[in-house]
Please model this.
Amino acid sequence: MNQRTPQASKAVWLSRFGPAQEVTEVKEAPAKQPAAHEVAVKLEFAPINPADLNVLAGKYGTLPTLPAVPGIEGVALVTQTGSAGDASLAGKRVLLPHGFGSWRQTGVLAAQDLIVVPETVPLEQAAMLRINPATAWCMLNEFIELKAGEWVLQNAANSGVGRSVIQIARACGLRTLNVVRRGGLEAELRSIGADAVVEEGEQLSQRIAAATGGAQIRLGLNAVGGECALGMAKALADGATLVTYGAMSLQPLRIPNGLLIFKDLAFRGFWVSKWFEKATPQKRDALFARLFAWASAGVLHTPIEAVYPLEKIHLALEHANRPMRSGKVLLHG
Ligand SMILES: NC(=O)c1ccc[n+]([C@@H]2O[C@H](COP(=O)([O-])OP(=O)(O)OC[C@H]3O[C@@H](n4cnc5c(N)ncnc54)[C@H](OP(=O)(O)O)[C@@H]3O)[C@@H](O)[C@H]2O)c1
Model:
């Protein structure tokens, strides 16, 4: 055990739910010493994801008891281990668990909750692995047993999840038809493995069919909702599954009766928090082993548009809320 005097450090605090910049503030708090089975950590990087913004707004599947430190994921360095802990953890890079509140410079948590990150994974990429790439992998594997060469249809294809879907699908021998809401993204998405890219809008299902040569598509992944999801549903094969995992347009799914009666489509939902809650430790470790290997090899890579020090949280939140970003906004400790 390494005994040090704890230094004061800063964290973002959420005092009530509402507009992101109004309800958050950076406050100093004395750092704690880890108890016997705990470790002290220092934040490296934490992203600002749409789910974080939804939590600040008070519109998410689970909300913290206030006041709370927000931040669903992040990567940190272990700076100190508790008296009964594994001393070899000191200096290790670790993924922070759900519910810890990653937007803090330092913190103390149970050693058993940590996932150790291999040195070969770039730290910024490690910070973003737990939510989006994990979601992409699960959605490609938990609903339909896809065969090599099959197409997967998705919208918001230039998002963090969308890019992970493209990269993982390519690594697994699947093809992706990618719907985006604006032009100018095709070359970039093709460069990371997309097989076809179409824009949202009129006659979406016909344009999807044309792009795949009329392929039977058994899996659709929807993060948008509204008209875009309807166009995708129409393009799916009889008996296919449309998985909804986000609602970026804030428009509900509108499903004509005929899509159920004549095509027998299945409409499912996915939430990675629930997946982690239910996954066995073996299943969880297998997921991370795969994601770490791909991130180390550069197969999985999420672009970053900006990195802000945690103290500049209001600038970072404003930036993360902007449309048409080229990548994620990260905080560093
Ligand atoms: N259910 C789960 O377990 C789970 C897990 C991870 C993520 N998610 C959800 O997945 C979605 C994507 O997350 P992310 O972190 O990958 O996002 P991100 O990287 O921040 O990208 C946001 C994406 O949404 C698009 N977008 C924004 N407003 C839109 C609108 N009105 N209509 C259509 N597209 C719109 C953006 O397009 P532009 O580039 O054109 O602005 C961009 O492609 C979010 O809804 C998030 O909450 C769910």
User: Anything to note?
Assistant: The radius of gyration is 21 Å. The first helix runs from residue 20 to 23. The CA atoms of residues 204 and 303 lie 27 Å apart.
